[in-house]
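Record 1 of the preview.
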Amino acid sequence: MRGTRRGAAGRGQGPWAVAVAAAVACVCACALSWSVGPAAAMPAADGWTPSAAPCTKEQLTADGARRVDGRRVRITLINDGPAPCVLKGFPTVALAGQGSPDRNKPLHVVGQGPAPAVTLAVGGRAATELAFTPVLGEAGGYCASGAEPTVVPSLVVGVGGAGRGGSQLAPDDGGQFALCGATVHATAFHGNGP
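->
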């Protein structure tokens, strides 16, 4: 005798239906975890990585002040850890107070170009270039504006979101910084490899 078929509503779930439902649930859950996991760790188009906090002055060290030419110097910062961090924007720059941070004289920084966020892995580097109004002439030079030149052995370079202070740096060639006025032009921090 042939049995009658029940309608779909009255049919119980057999073992195959449970297995199919479990497989579909796993595929959905796995796809969701894959999209949340690796995608969350990847930088967005503007370089911002949600899982990395802003860099602090305590985790950044400077790799010297390399003179590019008579008016520009390149500053490279390294993330010493313990975790990745994000740099965004332009540096802060001050004339060093020579052993007394309270005597540092901040310079007015004019940003040059865009300022995307840069995520630094531990050991990662980011650089900025500073450009000063040059002192003209030889020893005992002069400023075209008529102002007195400023000559200092070191600068204090910091990051905007890292609070007061930063790294005190002398030029890598053993010279001094000579500038006219209290303005410095700076590029935003940009990635500089491991």
